[in-house]
Specification:
Distance between the termini: 33 Å
Structural class: mainly alpha
Helix content: 55-70%
Low-confidence stretches: none
Amino acid sequence: MKRKTREVVVVQEEDKPIARNVLAQEIVNISKAFTSLRRSGLTRRAITVLVHDLVPAHGLKGKPSKTIISDVLVALDRLRREFVE
């Protein structure tokens, strides 16, 4: 069974672009924070449950599923390698 993925759209004001080095540094910061969280001793499942419990419901759509959260965690593992290095 193939999972349905959602495309994320980021709207940026054309007259206020964000510099590449700023974006790259923020990606590195996010990656380092996630690496620290993984090294804390929590399992990926524990992190998924923790995030699911902490994320507030968004209107009528409710909370993101644990599957979506897990997919985001997998992407965070690859973030720095894919976009900066």
